[in-house]
Amino acid sequence: MKPQILHNITKKMYTKEALTTQRTPARLSDTRTWASNWSLSPRLRQIAMRGVFCSLYSWMLVHLAWMCLLSSMQHCRAKVLEKTFEEWMRYRDECLKKLANEPYPTGLYCNRTFDMYACWPDGSPGSTINVSCPFYLPWFEKVKHGLVSRKCGPDGQWVMVNGTQPWRDYSQCEEEMESTMEEEGARRLMVSFKVLYTVGYSLSLLALVSALLILTIFRKLRCTRNYIHANLFASFGLRAISVIVKDALLEKRWGMEILHVSDWEALLSNEASPPRNQILLGHFLSLSLWGSSPQAAVGCRVAQVVMQYCILANHYWFLVEAVYLYKLLIGAVFSEKNYYTLYLYLGWGTPVVFVVPWLAAKYLKENAECWALNENMAYWWIIRIPILLASLINLLIFMRILKVILAKLRANQKGYADYKLRLAKATLTLIPLFGIHEVVFIFATDEQTTGILRYIKVFFTLFLNSFQGFLVAVLYCFANKEVKSEMKKKWQLWKLDHPALCCTQ
């Protein structure tokens, strides 16, 4: 959506008066009744909420969708929407109380009103009424000294444009266009990132499933080393599935599929058919009500918990691979069968030790939406510390393994160039297996990275994590000499058993 189009839509939304503002009470008792009905009558509350979504949310959702993608794509959008709506509710309640308690002036005047955007006191005929920008605006800190204005006509009626739309000057409460352009650029960048990691996880999932089938079907490939590879592939696959499912649930709940210019213009101009309007309004209503109901978010939270478990399991199977390879290289004598049981506990059991406390902390202290945001980073460290610990141990083992490989290559080197090439090959092969690349950003936490550094971190993290499963499947299954030899034998046997299906001279 182009900024100019957004500006036109915003302007049109600001000048669209809600139904309730056309029926401003003329007496103090009516005002008090009107104010109390907002909080007591469910039917009026539903009608009011629909008015909110028509005149306020339909303007704000598009802008917030851009703003939120700067930090965490769909997650942030949900949080900002809920926070903004809560602030709007508080602003509205304070306004209605204020309007109900203030005495009415005598003579001719423009009626006090809350027009879904700002709170307006009674106005003297022929005057311009200025009020501060409403504090519920997400960018309020930037415009807190600004004013929004309306004009009271000589006849005691608020000035209208073209006889139907109220005149309002809100220019001082708008966010700067430069900031909007930056948000649009960030939005496009983050959407590109999402496409990138979705493709990566999908490709990895396809390769990992194929690799798992190969390792389980061929009996001669069944050994402790390949069992560990299979578990690593499974952890990658579960991680990919959990991320895709979590994104799908978030998109279903918080996605703005209907946020198209044509939808907004049709809704605001009443050109859309009644069924279409009901769909749009119902979607806005469900967005708000879903965020306020903990029970309704169970599915999304379960997906979030499963995703965190799969990510932890993935890191600890990295660790299992590192420990197993190190034991092989140093020539340690051990029972592979007994150690394999310990490997299973380490890879699949260790994540439970950390996910359960994190789940309890989120449920008791931050039981909001999808548990995707971290207001108190202390809870997030419950998940982050074991990941950092596993990555650091992997790094130490990686360096130790390189030292062992270097010593063995030096002892058996035939040519200097060949020796260097083999060492480089071994290094590059071990990096995706152990997840060593994650150490690069191990101390660049989300709280510390901003601007270009944040985008660089997000890109490399999403790209490497999503395509890593594909790379591991290729290196340790499809490109493995033992696997290729076994598949070639099976292919030759199949051709002998099915001569009629094979090509003939």
UniProtKB/TrEMBL annotation:
**Gene Ontology process terms (BP):** adenylate cyclase-modulating G protein-coupled receptor signaling pathway; cell surface receptor signaling pathway
Spell out the family assignment given in the record's similarity comment: Belongs to the G-protein coupled receptor 2 family.
Origin organism is: Platysternon megacephalum (big-headed turtle)
The Swiss-Prot or TrEMBL record annotates one GO molecular function as: glucagon receptor activity
Ranges for domain G-protein coupled receptors family 2 profile come to 94-177, 193-480
| Superkingdom of the source species | Eukaryota
Keyword tags: Cell membrane, Disulfide bond, G-protein coupled receptor, Glycoprotein, Membrane, Receptor, Signal, Transducer, Transmembrane, Transmembrane helix
Tell me the Pfam families matching this sequence. Answer: 7tm_2 (PF00002), HRM (PF02793)
Topology in membrane: Multi-pass membrane protein
Q: Where are the transmembrane segments?
A: 195-218, 342-361, 381-402, 423-444, 456-479
Xref: InterPro entries: GPCR_2, GPCR_2-like_7TM, GPCR_2_extracell_dom_sf, GPCR_2_extracellular_dom, GPCR_2_GLP1/glucagon_rcpt, GPCR_2_secretin-like, GPCR_2_secretin-like_CS
What is this protein called in UniProt? Answer: Glucagon receptor
Its annotated compartments are: Cell membrane
Q: Which residues form the signal peptide?
A: none
Q: Does the keyword Cell membrane apply?
A: yes
Q: Name one GO cellular component term.
A: plasma membrane
